[in-house]
Write a structure and sequence with these properties.
This protein has 207 residues and is of the alpha/beta class. The chain contains five helices and seven strands. The chain has a domain of 139 residues.
Length: 207
């Protein structure tokens, strides 16, 4: 004969699990953050598996990028404006960068790498090239690595880029952005791990 359930035990409140809510919040935040970062890399990931030959666009002053040109590998020639150029650095990199407008157009800017020179730390002797090969992106859609470009321009006292401006990132090729594939896999792995953990925590316990 089975014993009757203890009424006093059944009347007790469910046990408190204060760390469960914290775990849910942390895992949900990690899941969301991983997906947001993965989405921000989508343009560079597409570029990394794109054509292995740059498309020639001729003189940059007469080139008008369209929506289909986003994250494409292009090659072009042009003179850069020296006045109004913006110099900035990226964390953990010894070289600096310079963003200059192409002469003859208001909508196309070129980012060139400026090698470190201990004899000329202010790069007064630096002469920008006149031929460029790199990734073409809208100024507002350059990915996470260019997300701080607006603040760098503001800190340098420059005028904000036009909302319809485009950037040619000189020196960037599909082969140099393949690292984004590994980062994407890692982020998706984080997202999958946390999604499975959330489902397990939210699943009702078996009686």
């Amino acid at each position: 004969m089975s014993e009757a359930p203890d009424a006093d035990l059944e009347a007790l409140p469910p046990p408190r699990r204060p760390w469960r809510k914290l775990t849910l919040v942390v895992m949900a935040s990690t899941l969301l953050g991983s997906l947001v970062l993965a989405a921000s890399l989508s343009g560079e990931v597409r570029f990394s598996v794109s054509s292995q030959h740059p498309r020639g666009v001729g003189e940059l002053s007469g080139f008008a990028p369209r929506s289909g040109d986003e994250n494409t590998w292009v090659q072009g020639e042009g003179e850069l404006e020296v006045k109004g150029a913006i110099a900035y650095r990226r964390p953990l990199e010894s070289d600096s960068y310079r963003l200059s407008r192409v002469q003859g157009t208001e909508k196309l800017w070129v980012q060139v790498r400026v090698p470190r020179d201990d004899d000329d730390p202010s790069h007064k002797r630096f002469v920008p090239p006149a031929s460029f090969v790199g990734r073409l992106v809208p100024a507002e859609g350059g990915g996470i690595r260019l997300s701080q470009l607006g603040s760098a321009i503001a800190e340098a006292g420059g005028r904000p880029l036009p909302p319809d401006a485009w950037l040619l990132i000189d020196g960037e090729a599909p082969a140099t952005t393949r690292w984004t594939l590994g980062v994407l896999v890692l982020l998706l792995g984080f997202a999958a791990f946390n999604l499975v953990g959330l489902l397990r925590l939210l699943r009702p316990a078996a009686s």
